[in-house]
Amino acid sequence: MSKKTRKKSSKTPSRKASKTSAKKVATGAGRAAAKTSAKKTVSKPATASHKAPSKKLKVNAPQKPPLAPSKGPRAATAKPTPENPSVKSPPGSNLPAAPAKAALLSEGAKAPAFQLPRDGGNSVTLADYLGKKLVIFFYPRADTPGCTKEAIDFTRLSGAFADSQTAVLGVSADPLKAQEAFRDKHQLSIPLVSDEKHEMLQSYGVWGEKSMYGKTFLGILRTTVLIDGRGRIARIWRNVKVDGHADEVLAAAQAL
């Protein structure tokens, strides 16, 4: 074997071996780098922008009561007028104002007109008594002690009133059935008028604030009015005391 052939054969395996070794090293290094990269990728914590939302326990907060539906603008406050001088609405209230006290009648003023039902089913008006004197006694409630005595006294003197050309009417807010039961129980001969809507009572100024046993309420103020033949107020009795009252009214009617 020649020297060239020996050199050739000795160099060739060495180069191939070095190339193979380099490839293995490169391949191993690549695999190690890949593993290291994979580990880093797995173990690398998520950044703030990719953090999963933490689960928090929800605490049921007390719910606020629902707001009441708006009822529109507040009702306008009624303004005083000559007919209703004392109308007032409660502050901050949407409720309508309480009925105002009617203006008090004065002697010499024209008597307010009316048309109301009476016991027996008929009706009476102020015009029915034009040209005659008329006594109207307003009583709080049928068949109560004071009202019963007053009605019996006017019935007792009904003949004397008729002789003086004076008619007599009893008026309250009781319904007709109560008035008729009151009439029958005490054998009353004077007409009993029912004003359940309080229209006449207010126009004559006899519906107002009262108090009893520490309680305040609206009701009839015991009052008697004497009207002359021209339809004008001749005399007014307010805060009537029942004893002797009918006799006093008769004397005034006879003197008129």
How would you describe what is shown here?
The chain is an alpha/beta fold. It has a domain at 115-255: Glutaredoxin, CATH 3.40.30.10. The chain has six helices and nine strands; from the N terminus they run H-E-E-E-H-H-E-H-E-H-E-E-E-E-H. The protein has a five-stranded mixed β-sheet with strand order 5-4-3-8-9. It is globular and about 40 Å long. The chain starts with a helix and ends with a helix.
Structural class: alpha/beta
Shape: globular
**Looking at CATH, which topology of the domain at 115-255 would you report?**
Glutaredoxin
Alpha-carbon distance between the two ends? 180 Å
* Count of DSSP strands: 9
Query: What fraction of residues sit in β-strands?
Result: 15-25%
The pLDDT mean sits at 76
The CATH architecture classification of the domain at 115-255 is 3-Layer(aba) Sandwich
Helix share bin: 25-40%
Radius of gyration: 53 Å
Give the class-level CATH name of the domain at 115-255: Alpha Beta
Order of helices and strands: HEEEHHEHEHEEEEH
Low-confidence stretches: 1-14, 16-20, 38-50, 72-100
Number of helices: 6
* Biggest β-sheet: strands ordered side by side in the sheet: 5-4-3-8-9
